[in-house]
Each structure stands twice: as C-alpha cells, then as structure tokens.
Fold these 2 entries.
Entry 1:
Amino acid sequence: MDLDLARLLARPAETKIVLLVLDGLGGLSHPQTRRTELQTARTPHLNRLAAQSDLGLTVPVAPGVTPGSGPGHLALFGYDPLMFEVGRGVLEAVGIDFALVPEDVAVRGNFCTLARDDAITDRRAGRIATKRAQKLVERLRTIDVGPAIEVFVEPVREHRFVLVLRGPDLDARVSETDPQRLGVAPLRSEPLHPSALATAQAINQFCDGARRQLTDAAPANGLLLRGIAKLPQLPQLEDVWKIQAASAAIYPMYRGLARLAGMTALGRPASFDEQVTALRQHWDAYDYFFVHYKSTDTAGEDGDFDAKVAAIEELDRQLPVLLDLEPDVLGVAGDHATPAILAAHSWHSVPFLLHSPYTRPDPRATFDELSCAHGSLGTFPAAAVMPFLMAHASRLSKYGA
Amino acid sequence: MDLDLARLLARPAETKIVLLVLDGLGGLSHPQTRRTELQTARTPHLNRLAAQSDLGLTVPVAPGVTPGSGPGHLALFGYDPLMFEVGRGVLEAVGIDFALVPEDVAVRGNFCTLARDDAITDRRAGRIATKRAQKLVERLRTIDVGPAIEVFVEPVREHRFVLVLRGPDLDARVSETDPQRLGVAPLRSEPLHPSALATAQAINQFCDGARRQLTDAAPANGLLLRGIAKLPQLPQLEDVWKIQAASAAIYPMYRGLARLAGMTALGRPASFDEQVTALRQHWDAYDYFFVHYKSTDTAGEDGDFDAKVAAIEELDRQLPVLLDLEPDVLGVAGDHATPAILAAHSWHSVPFLLHSPYTRPDPRATFDELSCAHGSLGTFPAAAVMPFLMAHASRLSKYGA
C-alpha cells in the first residue's frame, strides 16, 4: 500500500498486533524425503494456528529477487524495499544503539589479517575475541581524519566493528575497501560521485592510520570497510499507521531495522522467553510488536536441514507463551526464504500466516509452503503484510464513500 | 523486474536455460466434456515434469487484456509490454532477416483484390502463390516516392510482403490503408502527428504507384498497408541479464521478435527435431535458448479443439529430445491463451511450468490450467518469467544487505 494511502486510512484502535518473524522462513524439499523443512518439522501449534488462519506466500522484493535482511524486513514493515534502501553500515550502527544523525556516514568494519605485502590472508582476523577487538577499537578511535570530521568506532562482536564519520559535508557514495577475496591488498576508497571526494579521502586516511595503529596486532593487523551508507529517511510507523510500535529482538541488526521504522526496542532480550516477557511488560503501552526469531535463518545459512527443522520445532514448542498474550492479530512471517539445500537466502516466496477473528481458514491446512501456496491470501508482495495486519486489527477505515 | 534492477543483480554463471513457448497455450473447457485442451490431451511427459516443477499462471499484459504475439513474447523475454511496443511491420521485416536501421519505417503489406470501383473484394488476393507474389514485388520496387526516400519491398509468404521506407525524416505515426473490411476502397494514409506528413505522402504515393503497376495483376491488383512502425529500442538481453541468448523458431515472426531482444537465430529449423538439433549444436555458445512451437496457436485460432489437443500431444511426444539436453532450468510457457472455443487469442492467464533443482513441486500436479492455478508461483505477470528463470539458474545476486 502506498504510504500516503495508509496515512489517509489509518485510524487508532484498542487492538494489539504481533508480527512474529521467523528469519529465513521457507525452504525447499530435501532431496531424499522430498519434504521441506516446514513439512518435516513437527509443529502442532503452528499447524493448529494454520487451520484457523489466513495463509499465503509473500514476495519480499520482486519475483526472482533474493533479499538481504534489510529489504526483507523493510517490506514486512510496509515499505517498498526498492524505494527505501538501508546500507549495512547503518544497520550495524543502529543495531548497537549508536545514535546516528542524518549527516553521519556509517561503515561496517572487519578486522582482517594482512601479510607483509598487505595481501589479505584472513578476512575475519581469525574471528578474534570480542574483548580483544574492544582493545583494538580504542586504538582506532585515536585516528585523525581531518579537522572537520569526528570519528566514532564501536565494537560489535568478534572481528566486526562500526565506523561512523560525522561532519558537515560527508557523502556516502564512495567505494568499499573490502575486495571480498584473499591474496590481494585492501582497496582504496574512491568517490563514486564528485561530491564524495572528501569522504573517500577521510576513509583512506582512516585506513592508513589503522595500518599504523595495528602493526603489532596480528592476526588483527588490518581492516576492511564496506556497507558505507547514510541513514535512510523512512516515514515512521507512528506517522503513517497511527500505531505505537515496539520490537523484541535478540540480535542488534533487527532491533536496528525496527528502530529505523520508528519502533522502540524493548530492552535486549536474550531468549524467546525474554522476548515474550518484554511484550507482556509493555503490552499496554504499544499497539504493534515485532518479535524476531533468528535460528531458522542461521541453520538455513549453514546448510543444515536438520538444524533448521529443529529450530522450527523449538519455536513451535515456545509458541504457546506468545499465544497466551492473546493478541487480536498475529502474523507469522519470514523476511526471505533460506532453504537449507541452498545454504543461503533465496528468491522463493515465503510462508505467511495471519490469525485474527476475521480470516477464511482452510481446516485441512498446515503451516508449510504447499498449504500457504493454496492459502486464502494467495501470493502477494510482502509490503502488503502491514496493511493486512492493520485491517484485521480494525485500524483501517473505508476508502471512498 | 525493472530492467535497471536486473542490470544491477544479473551475474554470469555456467548454467543453461531453455524457454519453450507453446504459442497460444492455455484454453477453455469444451462445452461437452468440460475439460480444457490441456486437460483433454494425453501428456505424460508434461505431467511428469509438472509434478516435479513450480507451476503458476502468467498474465501477459494486464488482467483482461488480450495480447498479440508481439507483447506476448516481449513479456516472456522480460520486457513490460506496455512500455515497449513492436509494430507488426517491424516484426515482419526482422522476421525475413531484413536489416532494419533506426530511421526506417517498416510496413506490413498484403496484396488484395480490388473491383473496378476500387472496392476490396478479397483482402488476401486469393492467397496467391508465393512465386507469383515475388514477381509482383519486383514491380513494386520500381515505384518512386520522392528523392529522399529509398523503397524496399520484400515478399514474405503468399499474399504478404514487407515495405520499408528509408529516409532521414520519416515518422511512423501515420494511419493504415487497410480498412479491415470488404466492399470499400483502401484508405489514404493520414499523418497522426504533424511531423509525419511526408511519411503519409510517401505511403500514398507508393499506393498510387502500385495501383498503376498492378492493373493487370488481378486477383492481386491492389494492396493494403498496416502495422506501420519504426524499430523499438529494446534493451538487449546480453546487456541487461549478462546472457548470450539464442532462438530456435520455425516461423519468421518469432525469430524476428527474438532478434529484437538480442537473440541470435540458430538457423531456420523446419521441425521441432531440427530446433532441438540447433540447440544441441550451439549448446556451449549460449546461456539461454528460446524454442517456439506454433501449432497449438494455429489450431486454437482455427477453433479446432481436437487439433489443439493433437498439437499439445504431438509436442508432448517430442519433448524427451529436448529434455535430453538437460538444461539447468526449463520454462514451459505461452505467449497468450488461444482457447479453441474462442478461435482467437484471449485475455486468460497462461499455464507456466518451471523445472530446476530449486522448485516446490506438488506431486499431485498435472500440466493444465487448474493445477497451474494452484501452483507454487501463483498468478503473476509474464514479465517475471525472465527473473524466475535467471534466479533458478543462479544468475541473480542478492539485493541489499
């Protein structure tokens, strides 16, 4: 739905919406059993829900397009992911609660291992311990890239950190320094637009400074920068849909994505139970709750069919505590498919379930790709999930007389 | 998919894609049996494929819109057929290997029979023999339409020929001379835009010259001109999708359409067997092969339900030689439906089958309209066939982080 139309139709109500995102939901058949991960998993709770819900398949970006986590989530939050882009650097920064301002350029950084001739020998510096990385980040904070530019460096986890450059005339249209392969030196950042010259220079100065600061820090004696981006100007959920929205996500990136859309992060839960507890504690204060479940995607990316099945079953076991909250509308969705046989995100459409008092359930349905393909919602753009949730929550008024 | 997005995501791979287009695929139920042509035909090979494939229904142009062959094929090649138009004159010209240049205006011509008062008595001049038409075309080549304009006339088949006007200031926005009915005289061409005056005059001069040249040539003593058009500037498949694409089509028009998109025509095969042989001979040199099968449409246009069933069965019998090539991705599609009970192209959605290692088959599926309506791909724009084929061929990279 066009966001201007959404602004026109959205109206407040007393209803509660929960969107549960199973990251990488949806897969492909195991070559032996010919059953997908969802078809293989024992999911009594999801299946019971499915038989009482609207089902469908979502297309995150466009037919044939494999989405990253950014576009996959933006679509579920109601944004056309081709209109609104979120750079990886921005994702990482907001995911660690770094308060980005519009002038900032945010960069995703990796420590890496460089040989004597500057050739990269390990793009992740042996996944150094987070504690060690924190020490090295302190050294990086001392690097000077010029009088008008402030430098912030924040550790994320293991070899990963965030670099933020703050200054009046920064422009993120510069090239990355990560060549994405071994045996060559890190690249120099080049301006991709005439007005980005100063930013490329600052990034290169930062890299030169880091090379000096990290000489003795092997295996973390170099760094690679990518995902160089500014904050996207996303219309905020509250303004568009007249809802107070909150997120309960374990991983920083998903909290960060939710915050970009205007959601308040409900603490830093460390388990599904803590996520649900966060919802319960803040149930009265918000209208819409985004709950993120990661392990389905992790198992899929690892190419571990059985682990993905187990992750689905684990979620299913824990589902009742979420259902106990009795939201008026519950959506179960995925940001993209991650079929274990591909060991990667994929372009396939994603199972979707919508539970409310106003659905057209098929009592024979189960929660899997095939049932969803036959579902009452058909195959539809993921950006329509938001208006569906809102409509079922009695939060959209009639269009036209 | 927007072609700019396609350019961004497309990446080379070693995979082979075959798109088999059954012209006019998809029909309507026979009034007695209540089964469509596809449901009536015995198609063991297509049915076996269907049970191992993704199925769906394609919408060639827009809901309710009946496509001509041009838009139907352009959509399957990934173009929005409402953005890119191919005039019939252009189709005919490129289909006989006429090397059109951008300044040319191409026209589809018919010999016709005129009475003494110039009224049309047969719009196809009794379908005169191709040899006879060739002789008459030689006369038409002598017609002078002015100093700055070159005239090319080429026979096509029976009563059909192509007229190409070449000159610096030609503009195809002129009206046709074919009134599309009997008992009236051919029309004068009128400019439909101020800058097309000279072109309309040249066309009328050509018609006047032809009337003189053909006085003694009854039943081919007149001509009708339509499909007046310039070459469309189609982004080429190689530039957009990073593929080398080839066509194996028996009929000139489909070779021509494919050539407009940048496909190399693999000779002039005369049978399905020769088409497959052409693919085999050039298998290593190309990534994408378009194979066109005409007789489904011919039977449909003739309103011959049984002949259409037979055409489908004939294709099914021959399918194994194509499958023996073992393409990584096989699409079976139609450019539009041609239901025998309508004896014409129709607006109905068109069965589509996609076979690859990465599908979500329904083992109970067969290849017909009903199974495709329940298929895992849903109902989708035909222009998405191309990104689907590319994604399944591992030729599209991820969008966003």
Entry 2:
Amino acid sequence: MSLLITGSVALDSVKTPVEEHRDLLGGSASYASVAASFFAPVNMVGIVGTDFPKKYLDLYRKHGIDLDGLQIADGETFRWSGEYEWDLNNRRTLSVCLNVFETFQPRLPDGYKRTPYVFLANISPQLQMHVLAQVTAPKFIVADTMDLWIGTQRDALVELLRKIDCLVLNESEAREFTKQTNLIRAGRQILKQGPKYVVIKKGEHGCLLFAKDLFFSAPAYPLEDIHDPTGAGDCFAGAFTGYLARADRIDHESLRKAVIYGSVIASYCVESFSLTRLQTLTQPEIAERYDLFKLMSHFEVG
Amino acid sequence: MSLLITGSVALDSVKTPVEEHRDLLGGSASYASVAASFFAPVNMVGIVGTDFPKKYLDLYRKHGIDLDGLQIADGETFRWSGEYEWDLNNRRTLSVCLNVFETFQPRLPDGYKRTPYVFLANISPQLQMHVLAQVTAPKFIVADTMDLWIGTQRDALVELLRKIDCLVLNESEAREFTKQTNLIRAGRQILKQGPKYVVIKKGEHGCLLFAKDLFFSAPAYPLEDIHDPTGAGDCFAGAFTGYLARADRIDHESLRKAVIYGSVIASYCVESFSLTRLQTLTQPEIAERYDLFKLMSHFEVG
C-alpha cells in the first residue's frame, strides 16, 4: 500500500565539531519520504521555492517518490542551520528562515486523498490537521512533533492526538509534554490522550513502543561513528510507517518489526550528512542490519 | 557453584522527595550478596562494627549467606546518607562516615579461598586486589567500581582491569573513565584494557554487554514507581555473577541470560527501600519477570 507524507522540505547547513556542510537536502518530509521509500510508494506533500536545486528533485524521483503534492512557490526554500556539540546529542539552532514555508497551505492532489497510510512528519499541528482533513479513507495515521509545538501550540497538539493512531516523539519531548520524568509514565499518559500507540525515541538508547496491551523496547544500533544525527528521528518514523504500509497489517508483530526497520534506517542515516548514506542504501544492507538487531537483543528462555 | 562477594556493608540513611528512612541495611556487598543468593551460595567478605543490628545478620542468614568472612570490629559500622532529587537518576551524598571500614583489611577464611566465582563489589581497587590475591582457583572474576576510584585511584583501577574477566560500571563512569562520550567506543576501549567482558549499566535505559565478538543490548523493566534506586547496580552485578555461578558456564548464551537475571533482580530492588523487596522475592516472581523481559524485547525475523 502507498503512504502519504507531509512535513517540511528544507535546505540545511549543518556544522559538527569535525565537518560543515551547506545547502544540504533536509526537512522532516525529505528524510521521512526517502526512508519510507525503501518499503512502499510515497506521496509527498510539501513546499519549496524556485531556488530548490533540480538535483534534489531528481533524488526524490530516484526513490520513486511522487511529487504531485510538492508545491513550487515563488520565493526561497525554507532554510535551517544548526550546530552540534562534541556530544552529538546536543544541537543548537543557528538560524531559521521560513521563506515560502511561512505561508504553506498543504493541498492534496486528488490522487493522494485516498492514500491509506499517513505520516504527518514534524510541522505545526495545525498544518498536520489541515492535511488530515483532506484524507478520505485513512487506515493508519502516524504523527511526529517537536518541542516548539509542545511549547507554543499545545491545544492544537492535544486536539491532533485524538485524530491519530500513533504519536512518535523523542524522550525530552515526551517528558516536556507530560511533565513526567519517568518515561514509562509519560508514554502511558499520552496513550490516554487519544493515540492507540506511542513511540518514544531515545537516540543512542533505542526506543519504546507503548500500547494498552503492549510494551516493546528496541535497542539502538551500536555506532561508534555518528557523522550527523540530523533527520534520524524523521527517518525512523518514515521507515516505521513505510513498513506498516508494506505489511498492510496493524498488529503487535508488524508494529514491533516496524520499530526495528525504523531503527535500521535511522542508524544508516546518521552514518553520513543529509541523505547521502540512504542514496546508496540497498535492500540486502537493510536485511543485514535487521538481522544484527535480532542478534544483539536475543536471549534464550530462562 | 558458590561465589565470593566482597564490598562494603553499611547502614544507610536515604531520602527521596517522598520518603526518608534511617539505618537501613546497605553497602555494595549487602545488595550484591542478597541478589546473588537467589542463584548460588554466597561467601561474603566485609566488615561491620559492634553496633551492627542482629536483625541484619539474620537477614543475611535467611538468604543462606555464609558470614565466616564478615569481620565484626570494635567501633561503628560504615554509614552513608544520601538524597535523591525528583528525577531519581540524580543522587547527592549527604555524609559518609567510614568508621570501621577505614582500616578494613579483607581476610579470606580458608574455606573461601577456592570459591570459583568472584564478585568484587564496589570498594577501592586496592582492596579488590587484596581480596583477589587470596583467591587460589578463580574461574570467573567480576568487578564493579565507582566515579570516586576513577578520579582518585586510576592507576590501581587500570591494574585491576588486567586481573579480572568482567568489569561492570555505569554509563557516566564509563564515559569518565574512557573520556569517550560515545558509549560504544567507551565499552570497546575498556575491553582493550584487560577484561574479556564489559557491562555498562544505563539505569532506565537498560544495559550493554561487550566482548570482542559479542554485543548485547538489554532493555530495562518498565517501572512507573521507583521508590529507591540505591543498590540497583549492586543487585544487578550480584545476580549477574550469581547466575553465572549457578550455570557454571561462561558462553554468550549464559552471559546474555545473566544480564537479564541481573536486570530482573535490580528491577525488584528499586520497588522498595533497602533490601525490603528482595526479602519477600520468590523464584516464581523471578521467572515471571524474566519472561516479561523476553516478551518486551521480542520481534520476529524480518
């Protein structure tokens, strides 16, 4: 089955203690769509300016991503720049220029409206709901969010929670949103606010999947060299939803597998800047790392 | 097979944001020995003062712990008091009175010297080596440590690493000892300094087991209510070594299982203050939680 992905498309400038790169392909929709494309056909909804490089449109196309929903507006593309400290877990935003993104009104082409799987990547909850309102027969809706919306659009986020099946967010966001330091309480508290499933991403510590009758803890892949953590969370959620679209089945087994596939793609993403690593990623490499996840978390019965 | 455990025996005063208790049974050897006793017979080596309550000696005996190696010296027992913040991951030591522990010279009764499995719980690396020198036929030696020794007795700790089979330490200690922020690098770097195995404990994020040809990531049990984290790490390592003594087999399968049994006992430990919860813990409860660890980390092949 196909999946619809909406979110930001950006040109990123990223600085780490060892490298600096400008005008990289970035944005939550870019990362999520390329990640999802390894599992199912993607319909992308977003906006770019007339300065958006053709090479990045070609990159999307190479991954079979449908671009009918990508608006090209007069003006410049959304730009973000950020810097990572030595501990790559800490990121500082240096500048944000919304440009054409400021007035983005997502419009779904008719052909997108019946897409069964939906991933609302990180954009404002208002925009996420605006997209949802145009989807006519969703089977499973996943949404991501960020600290900014928790702080500034809490009511809209709470409203969104009642309309989706699964919320994906990171550890600090889960704590901030629920005011709970204990992540188990945080996850279960969000479940009570609407979604049937909650995934808390913990970076180097893996992630947790919560449902009323399910708790699943997935490890992180042991990486010694992380070059750029940008987009790892978007890749996780894109691949997670992409796998569910491929399986076209929402049960505990497919959800657990989706979490692992999400972790696999995210672990490849951070091996290089932007979407560089995913451009050469192959299905055998995905299968190989999935098997390694299995091996590193396996133990015999007691 | 039996195991030898040495470490501190203390009377603890512990304050959390909701409770405060005085003169609790504490110390690394206490926690580790009671935890290990669920798996194998324990020979304990430590020191207490004449003020040490008989009820705590009875508690050890109830767990079948051999006390021939517990010296009762003139003076007062080692006392520690600490306070936890709301985020129970942060602890502040309020006072430390070494008392009889200050001049502790561990002496192994003859009957202890051939104990095949050894756990050197957290005491100074000098004392840990002093104990090791008296052991005549060790099959497997596990040691724990703490930030204090990393800062003040680094050379002795490095020397100890060459004499043991497995080092158990927590996340922040691993980072501090190796000066690596990346835990995977930290674990592998310690492996190069002597021990065949390294376990990094990550509290609410589970733990990691490293060997030259093994990487195992174990989840943490999802606890909503942690009453007192004191001793969880000691319980983990005691049960880990205790299970290996019971299995009497050091291979990847038994090491992985030992990590899970360690996690099970630690998860029960934090449900109440001091060793209260472990006093009523049963084998069926251990088996039940082991099965839950299996369930919460299981996923099908890709």
